Amino acid sequence: MAEGVQAYLPLHRFQSLIKAFVFDMDGTLVDSKEAVIAQLTDYSLSLNREPLPREQLVKLIGRTDHDIARVLVGDDESTIERAIEWFNETHTKYYGKLAKLFPGVEDCLRFLKSKGYMLGIATNATAEMVRQFMEWSKLKDIVDASVSADEVPGKPAPDMILKLAELFGAEPSEIVYVGDTVLDVMAAKSAGALSIAVVCGVDTMDELLLAKPDLILPLASWVCRAFNI
Hints:
- The chain is of the alpha/beta class.
- It has 2 domains: about 5-30 and about 100-225, Rossmann fold (3-Layer(aba) Sandwich), CATH 3.40.50.1000; about 35-100.
- Helix content is about 45%, strand content about 15%.
- It contains 10 helices and 9 strands.
- It has helices spanning about 35-45, 55-60, 65-75, 75-100, 105-115, 125-135, 160-170, 180-190, 205-210, 225, and strands at about 5, 20-25, 30, 100, 120-125, 145-150, 175-180, 195-200, 215.
- Strand 8, helix 9 (about 205-210) and strand 9 form a beta-alpha-beta unit.
- The longest helix is centred in the middle third of the chain and has 22 residues, at about 75-100.
- The relative contact order is 0.20.
């Protein structure tokens, strides 16, 4: 087992059973912390509101855009919808300048693809944000399918992973789901997928340990070495 890998299952026994790897987006594939903070700060300023402190904005990463908008503007649905439209319209402006793929992500995904695994994204972001992410990250030709929180209920509900299992013609138990938050671990466990948590995103090691994923890694790119693929 590679140094830095904390596993609770004999991973080599699962390799032949896996059909697909599914990844969260923000905090897992892409280091978007500064992009999200800048975007949400500017949105609050555009409304002449005091931005939330940085530590509170960080904790919003990984939640659905509907939930994020509610925190920023309150419970009025029309105001929430306008906020989500603004998030979608300005996504590339902030991500294109301030976000970047975590080290080794593209190489790992391309390697998994070359080995015949299906690849998916399950994210609490919107489908439009995923579309833009695919364009600027150059991962469009690698990822087979994605499911977002404006298409099915968001994490921690298992619906995204179950939908991707259906699209891939796989059982949930044949899917590895990789994410950086407790919500990701909960979704994977509820779906019956193998759960990998990475500590490069929002939630801390202690928070992730309490959620009891099957495996904890430093980065999503360590998936290849963890499974000896």
